[in-house]
Amino acid sequence: MAFATRRKLFLAIMAVPVVAYVLVVGIWPLAQGIWYSLYDYNLIRPQRTKFAGLDNYIEIITDPVSRQALINTAIFTVGAVFFELLLGFALALSLWRDDRFNRLALALILIPVTITPLVVGLIFKGLLAADYGMIGYFLAQWGLTDPRGLLADQHAALATLIFIDVWEWTPLVALILLAGLKALPSDILEAASVDGATGFQKLRIIVIPLMLPAILLALILRTVDAFRVFDTVYVATGGGPGNATNTLMLHAVKQGLEFFNIGRASAIANLTLLIIALIAAGFVMMIRHADRKANGK
User: Fold this and answer.
1) For residue 108, how far is the Cα from the chain centroid?
2) Do the Cβ atoms of 202 and 193 come closer than 8 Å?
3) pLDDT digit string (tens) for 72-116?
4) Degrees, nearest 5: CA angle 118-122-125
5) Is 237 left (phi over 0), alpha (psi -120 to 50) or beta?
6) What is the Cα–Cα distance from 88 to 125, expressed in whole angstroms?
7) How far is CA 184 from the centre of its chain?
8) What pLDDT digit, counting tens, does each position of 122-178 carry?
9) Bridge partners for 51 per DSSP
10) CA 281 vs CA 34, 180, 286, 287: distances in Å
11) Which of 19, 116, 238, 264 is most deeply buried (CB count within 10 A of its CB)?
């Protein structure tokens, strides 16, 4: 057997475990989910399972609870990512100078990122409780919030969850943007200073255009993660009050594990996956365009 043939055979054999892993862990569950979503399949009455076509997907659109979950997810994602990008950029600019204080400050502000979202939700649920929370008690007593607390207020609960997400993930956005700032060519900035450019002019004309790949990377990571939010919402509000904070992932879990409606839960999960894939594809195209523009191609 020729060397080239043996080399190809060796590489093919080495790739078999990876392909098997992807098929078993990635493709098979996905295919199973798509299959279930096409059936009226409930674990309470599995013997009455029947093919339903796209009925589960149509019901997501026509069902007001599902529509509210989709709207809540969109509002949560846009609100959280907007404030995280804004505050993260401000933090990155303030930490741009490389000195001991900024390195220490960066290490400290990253602490929220190390806490799991489940624990973050429990912490804020305790802090904001109207009857015993260190913050929520005083806010309720002073009449600044609903007597039942921020997380029990139908008009404030979703905004409070956005605030919690911003508190936890803004440092990560700042870290990504700070890496982008550190990679900027210093000679261009020095030349702009020599030419008399102000700080705002350098930010608008040089810094932001050159940082577009880093900005878009932060956007795609946080958008995808925020769109599939579950842990914090589950422990902090459980989707309530009413359906005020019900998100797509939480709605899918309720359908699957509380009502045992596997067909509907699979359809919601597939719809969430499709939306995330479309968002990710859009951002990837924007990153490639920004990268080509930054490199003058």
Assistant:
1) 22
2) yes
3) 999 999 999 999 999 999 999 998 887 888 888 888 888 999 999
4) 135
5) alpha
6) 24
7) 27
8) 999 999 998 888 999 999 999 888 888 899 888 899 999 999 999 999 999 999 999
9) 39
10) 21, 22, 9, 10
11) 264
| Amino acid, res. 105 | A
Tally of residues, the chain: 297
Q: Is the dihedral of CA 63, 68, 69, 73 positive or negative?
A: positive
> Do 294 and 71 touch, CB atoms closer than 8 A?
no
Distance CA 280, CA 4 (A): 38
Q: Are 202 and 194 in contact (CB under 8 A)?
A: no
Beta carbons within 10 angstroms of residue 12's beta carbon: 10
Token duo for residue 145: 């919030």
Cβ neighbours of 105 (radius 10 Å) = 14
Pairing mode, strands 39-40 and 50-51: antiparallel
**Model's pTM, two decimal places?**
0.86
Quote the pLDDT of residue 101: 85
Report residue 293 as tokens.
């523009």
Structure tokens at 196: 């008399």
% of the chain beyond a pLDDT of 70: 98
* Alpha helix positions (H), 110-211: 111-114, 117-128, 136-141, 157-182, 186-194, 199-202, 208-210
Q: E-strand spans in the chain?
A: 39-40, 50-51
Residue with tokens 């959280």: 80
